[in-house]
């Protein structure tokens, strides 16, 4: 059984959703250390001027866990994010299909970043009919750090293969320890798909929202490498 593992992301990008599709079980790391400069509270959408980054303002401190990160609601960040999405995707083929859902998300009084990100991830998977079981690391309560914790998480869901991004192998993943524990390593095979994006040059690696707005239910099949009928 193939297990994918990744931290919670805000408006997750295409490669993230592809990893879920490529897994038999997907484990969300929702209680690891918060990465201030990562995708946990930011992602990109397309505008006529190019990519724009939407960032959720948060209160953070050195060494803080992701499940402790609170959203800084002093400013109207949610209204601004929804306004940006609506403005730049209003003419996209599938904006009417997803507008009510996203407007509802951005109308909620979110306190913690994890709750917002979990709601968005659940909503994306539901609308793309992705049925891969998703388990949250905080519910498994396994010990360890780094690769040792990954091993314990995979064993906890009875997995035998770890689906990893290529970057992890070159940086922090202890491949020998993984194999010694009886877990096979599989590298995610990822090629950013191309699809109609409206005006301007094509931009890869945007939020899944961009693909959903342009291709609707075909977003899933496109990520799976299946021929699609996205409107041109």
Overall helicity: 25-40%
Domain unit count? 1
Rg for CA atoms:
18 Å
Shape: globular
Strand neighbour order, sheet with most strands: 7-2-1-8-9
Strand content: 15-25%
Given the structure, what is the number of helices?
Answer: 10
Quick one: biggest sheet?
5 strands, parallel
Sheet/helix structural class = alpha/beta
Regions with little confidence, pLDDT below 50 for 5+ residues: none
Can you characterise this structure?
With 232 residues, the protein is of the alpha/beta class. It contains ten helices and nine strands. The strands form three sheets. Strands 7-2-1-8-9 form a five-stranded parallel beta sheet, with helices on both faces. Helix 2 runs antiparallel to helix 3. The chain is globular and about 50 Å long. The mean pLDDT is 92.
SSE order and pairing:
Layout: E1 2-7, H1 14-21, E2 25-29, E3 42-47, E4 50-55, E5 58-59, E6 70-71, H2 77-89, H3 95-106, H4 113-127, E7 134-136, H5 137-140, H6 146-156, E8 161-164, H7 166-170, H8 175-180, E9 184-187, H9 208-215, H10 218-223
Parallel strand pairs: 1-2, 1-8, 2-7, 8-9
Antiparallel strand pairs: 3-4, 5-6
Characteristic terms for this protein:
232 residues, alpha/beta, five-stranded parallel β-sheet, two-stranded antiparallel sheet, globular
Short structural summary:
The protein is 38% helix and 16% strand.
């Amino acid at each position: 059984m193939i297990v994918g593992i990744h931290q919670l992301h805000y408006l997750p990008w295409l490669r993230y959703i592809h990893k879920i599709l490529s897994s038999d079980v997907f484990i969300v790391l929702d209680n690891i250390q918060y990465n201030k400069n990562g995708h946990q509270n930011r992602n990109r959408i397309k505008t006529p001027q190019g990519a724009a980054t939407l960032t959720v303002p948060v209160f953070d401190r050195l060494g803080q866990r992701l499940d402790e990160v609170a959203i800084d609601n002093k400013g109207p960040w949610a209204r601004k994010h929804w306004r940006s999405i609506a403005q730049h995707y209003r003419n996209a083929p599938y904006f009417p299909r997803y507008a009510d859902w996203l407007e509802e998300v951005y109308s909620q009084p979110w306190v913690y970043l994890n709750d917002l990100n979990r709601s968005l991830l659940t909503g994306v998977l539901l609308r793309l009919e992705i049925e891969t079981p998703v388990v949250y690391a905080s519910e498994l309560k396994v010990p360890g750090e780094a690769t040792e914790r990954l091993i314990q998480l995979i064993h906890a869901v009875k997995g035998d293969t770890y689906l990893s991004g290529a970057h992890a192998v070159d940086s922090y993943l202890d491949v020998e320890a993984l194999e010694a524990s009886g877990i096979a390593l599989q590298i995610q095979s990822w090629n950013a798909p191309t699809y109609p994006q409206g005006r301007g040059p094509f931009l890869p690696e945007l939020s899944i929202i961009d693909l959903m707005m342009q291709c609707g239910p075909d977003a899933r099949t496109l990520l799976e490498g299946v021929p699609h009928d996205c409107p041109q």
